[in-house]
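Service request form, structural biology core

Requester: graduate student, group of Dr. S.
Request type: structure prediction, single chain
Budget code: on file
Notes: please return the result as structure tokens.

Sequence provided:
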Amino acid sequence: MLWRQLKTPKVQIKKGGNMKKINIIFSSLLLAVSLLVTSVAQAKDIKIGVSFRMLSDVGYKHGELIQDTVAEWNSSGGINGKKVDLILYNDECKSEKGVANATKLAYQDNVHVIIGSSCSSVTLPMVPVISKAKVPQIIPHSTSSKITLTGSEWIFRVPVSSRFYKIVQAKFTAENAGTKIAHIYVPDQASMDFSKSMIAYVKDEYGVDPVYEAQAGEKETDFRSYLLKAKATNPDALVCSGLVDETVRCLVQSYEVGIPKSVARVANSVASKVEVPTNAGKAAVGVSYAAAFAASDTRPIAKKFVKHIKSRYGVVPGHDFSQMEDLLTMLKPALEKAEKQFSGDLASDRKAVRDSIAGITNFTGLASGPISFCAAGTPECRDGNRTPVMIEYTKGGKNWKTKVAGTVTFNASAGL
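Core staff response, request fulfilled:
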């Protein structure tokens, strides 16, 4: 279409002229026109790149949520009249794929902003890539405190950092269940960080070491040997810290080895994923975890969101859905503000997006607390949500239910 709007350059050929020279000039003019067309095309659209975990049905529905939202933006005029191009990659929670996706999005797809990833073990190695490329990245799900401790000015986190989770979960468990705590965790970065941080907090605040601590093997499927050793310590609480499948197995097998119901079950924020109560069934009952959103939230905005997700995607949304929704809701006005400063130079436009996101303050959406960022590339500025909510499952299975135990808001430097 743009080619039709541009006239072919006219070249006058004089008798006796040098045809080779004319051909060179003509080719140069065509190249210039081609570069102009490419520049115009790039300036016309705003590109959003996505890399996150899509392994389960729910994971793919997170992708559908992004696609549907961007489609709605475009149908209502895009970003200040500009179309939004969405480039979506599945990193399968594998670090090497996340790094490859980030590299491609930054240098080949030339996106203005990257959304991702879900797994902390994927997001963390992506940080050096996006920082070197100087493309802003906004994180929907990864919670490891190490991500923002890198000090990158190009990273923003929507979910609650594990440095806040470790405090609220440790305090809640110690004061409501007891300080005799057994920990089983997997090699996943966020899972290890959750347990290690919780152990350190209980040691600092209550002077107590865990009664049992074990790191399971990678892709562990049988936790019973660890659970039997934990059972022998007669714990007040059992912490199962892992990814979805490991958490489910640990909870189910804890009952298989005879750990009584009176022992409190605790999980990291992955327990908010709908697969955990659905697949764990009765073993999910009584499990507590800290998150940023609960489907049992009675606020009008939360009830409306839950109804929409259930109707549109056929699932009850956990905080991964809510965090993606909040991310997209925040991102649109940030892009609208940034686009007004776009010059067509990708590096300059990316910086405008970064600075616009950094200017978000007191965003109130589905999260349990307001989300704010600021200019410095510090955890205080880039861990946007500081208010986890304590949740407990009251029913497991397909029609699982939860209750909200309460919320706690921390100052920006807590847990550092």
